[in-house]
Amino acid sequence: MIAVVDYGVGNLFSLVSSLKAVGADAVVTGDADVIRNADKIILPGVGAFGDAAAKLRATGLDRVIIEEAKAGKPLLGICLGMQLLLERSFEYGEHKGLGLIEGDIVTISNVIPADLKIPHIGWNALKFTENKSPLFKYINEGDHVYFVHSYYGANCAKDTVAVAEYGAELTAAVARGNVMGCQFHPEKSGEVGLKILKAFCE
Amino acid sequence: MITKRIIPCLDVKNGRVVKGVNFEGLGDVASPVELAKFYSDCGADELVFYDITASAEGRELFTDILCELARSVFIPLTVGGGINTLSDFDRVLKCGADKVSVNSGAIKNPSLIAEAAKRYGDQCVVLSCDIKRVDGVFRVFAKGGRENTGMEAIEWIRRGAESGAGEIVVNSIDTDGVKGGFDLEMLDAVCNAVSVPVIASGGAGCIDDFTKLFRALPKVDAGLAASIFHFGEVKIRDLKEELKKNQIPVRII
User: Fold this and answer.
1) Which of A44, A115, B143, B203 is most buried, judging by how many CB atoms fall within 10 Å of its CB?
2) CATH number of the domain encompassing residue B217
3) 81-120 in B: which are within 8 Å (CB) of A?
4) pLDDT digit string (tens) for A103-120?
5) Is residue B253 part of a domain?
């Protein structure tokens, strides 16, 4: 069973639908025991980092997720959920993340040319790094996935498994053992996205 | 590199797709779910659904259909039509819409854009505008393009983007239905006024019109059309192959 962590951030309808579409047994939950008993954990999220991190802490689920991840349970962060895996974010101030992956969340305006639009929104191609990820076992380099974000993971090159070119190479996915994250939305990335979810779920 | 998006747009009334759709090999062409799957399989990058139902029952039917759609189609979905309040946003977002398009609702109550952007994020709010030249000035029209609001369109869009609209759909009434190409002059004016993504609508008649659009205006992010896709005059796969040949970045599946 896969626990989709519900901590009051964002709409989980599409994510749960896509998990069902790949045959996964997914449960949306904010219950620590359910998360502890699950085989795998998905941490979703949209919105601002500070708010989301505060909500995770307020529910105590931050500690549960950290404990489970450190015990080896597969964890997938999606979009803001991926950003939360890193150490800290500089989105409107400075906020502490879960610290499961080394690195910072900073604005993409630091690295992209001024004439490119923010957010980075739309379909972009994945470029794999030398760190191979099992998440991508059913897809190919150059496949397109759907992004919507204004901040990205920096200083996390050693755990970066894919980047997307947008005037600079933006971190598209990270992985450190059982802890994985996608900046893009696999649940909105058509067949390619479903194949990524399938790879995580099975 | 980010790709240019191709977006088919479907009008839905009482849970069924209207505006004549004509496809071979599709059982029920009026089923929004079947059509959505078809377009998604053809490589559409996003889908827009406008609810043109007037009745409360029809509206309920629309949200039911939307839920069903979002269960089987995994590309971004934008919903518009009858969006006047935050609870309208809530209603369609809960059913799996990713973005909500406002038009007349924002004209009646301009603070709707800022309120929705604050609650759901800029990326969720799409400002859709029907624009027509009146005595050489771009004017915003309401009620499906029937009523001149008197508002100057570029200023309205600039304010909308400042208030938090994350994308702008520019529908040129002057070129809509003419099939002579997109309204490049109007789109250029909008692109120069805002830094959020701009979606061109109105006027596409053939593949070449999309090539011209993205070549002339690299700042335009997406092209939206309805009937030329529905009647198979332009096939999305062919369109994308042609764009690719012209060095325009597209996603081909």
Assistant:
1) A44
2) 3.20.20.70
3) 93-96, 98
4) 999 999 999 999 999 899
5) no
